[in-house]
Amino acid sequence: MSDIRVYKNKDELVRQLSAKIRTIESNSIDERGRFTIALAGGSTPKALYEFLATVQPIMQWDKWHVFFGDERTVPPDDVDSNFHMVQESLLSKVAIPEHQIYRMKGELEPKESAEQYSQVLKDVFGDDRLPQFDLILLGMGDDGHTASLFPRTEAIHEQEKWVVAHYVEKLDTWRITLTPSVINTAHHIIFMVTGEKKAKRLNQVLNGEYQPDTLPSQIINPTNGELHWYIDDLAASELS
Ligand code: 6PG
């Protein structure tokens, strides 16, 4: 099941998305005693994280287990680090137990970091089947990538590994990312996409031909879970 929700502006989107996260969190804790969430990096979700940290104090923070969908190969205090952004906007402001925050270690050798993160997933979710997150939050780049699944990279079609490190030619850097098989196993997957510069690509992803090698966001399709798109009017402006 997937649905597309369009909001008049980013503030309204953030408010509604926070309420949705609260619902998923509450149901997850009722059913499984914890809330496992993989957060998106980039710039779009910063406002959401800040809102969650300030206006949504009713979360059961002690039951949160926080992961990352992808990471840049930089140290955690680097301004380009996704962890750094999440730490500044959310983690430093709420009482999530430190040992329940699982950082992708961008400062390590990339392949070693990817293997280490796979082991973290096995430790937390059990190693007999694909890790099933309660919620995975994703962004979408203006080239249609998501997490660090960039166009024309083999990571899009990775079937064995749960986490991969790969050189992204377009960025001339290495990235670490969850693979589609892990992402698609989640109970809930939510894309948050805002701004006019995403509009054309978003229409291609949602309404265009299925071509995940050039539009990697299209590879995201939950096996049993739900897919939600939270977009603002600007990003929706070219939806046919
Ligand atoms: C990252 C993100 C990436 C992001 C998109 C959109 O590491 O950059 O995980 O997948 O969600 O690039 O980024 P913006 O939100 O900055 O447009």
Structure description:
With 240 residues, this protein is α/β, with parallel strands linked by helices. Helices cover 30% and strands 20% of the residues. The chain has 6 helices and 9 strands; from the N terminus they run βαβαββααβββαβαβ. It has helices spanning 10-32, 46-54, 82-91, 110-125, 180-183, 199-207, and strands spanning 2-7, 35-39, 64-68, 70-72, 135-138, 163-168, 173-178, 188-193, 226-232. It has a 6-stranded parallel sheet with strand order 1-9-8-5-2-3, covered by helices on one side. It has a 3-stranded antiparallel sheet with strand order 4-7-6. A hairpin with a 4-residue loop joins β6 (163-168) and β7. The longest helix has 23 residues, at 10-32. Bound molecules: 6-phosphogluconic acid. The site of 6-phosphogluconic acid (6PG) has 15 residues, from loops. 6-phosphogluconic acid binds next to loops.
Helix tally equals 6
Looking across the biggest beta sheet, what order are the strands in? 1-9-8-5-2-3
The arrangement of helices and strands along the chain is EHEHEEHHEEEHEHE
The beta-strand count equals 9
Could you name the key traits of this structure?
binds 6-phosphogluconic acid; alpha/beta; 240 residues; three-stranded antiparallel sheet; six-stranded parallel sheet
Topology overview:
Layout: E1 2-7, H1 10-32, E2 35-39, H2 46-54, E3 64-68, E4 70-72, H3 82-91, H4 110-125, E5 135-138, E6 163-168, E7 173-178, H5 180-183, E8 188-193, H6 199-207, E9 226-232
Parallel strand pairs: 1-9, 2-3, 2-5, 5-8, 8-9
Antiparallel strand pairs: 4-7, 6-7
Helix pairs in contact: 1-2, 2-3
The structure holds 6-phosphogluconic acid (6PG).
